[in-house]
TrEMBL record:
Name listed for the protein in its UniProt record: Putative alkaline shock family protein YloU
Pfam families registered for this protein in UniProt: Asp23
Family: Belongs to the asp23 family.
Organism: Nocardiopsis mwathae
Amino acid sequence: MPEAREKKTPGSGRDADARELVTAKGTTSIADHVVAKIAGMAAREVGGVHSMGGGAARAFGAVRDRIPGATTSGTAARGVSVEVGEREAAADIDLVVEYGVSIPDLAAGVRRNVITAVERMTGLEVTEVNVTIDDIHLPGDEVDDGESEPRVK
């Protein structure tokens, strides 16, 4: 699990009170799952990301997605764990990548997109984004999602 360090780096380019979450007039708290959803959505926007989460998370999510009436709010945060402090956040992202994609370039793109989205939307400083590649999606590895024609009529 990443550690959100509570130190302020000088010259971080922040407007003094405009984006502060802790002020003399009150405190704004952002829940971990909110930051996780933002990070998950930002990671999915990067080309070459096939899916999010390790094998168990993907399997559990696939089962949950097939249950009628089940909420899909956890889908956005699947494969993401975060630690959120008063002013800073850190994230761990688990990915499945498309075959043929440069993994170092993809990781850099995911890291950049997550940092930009979380900092812009929350005002938190992102101290680190750790990217783990759990699997690679090969061409022809498509899973039957139940939407093709049934074999028996």
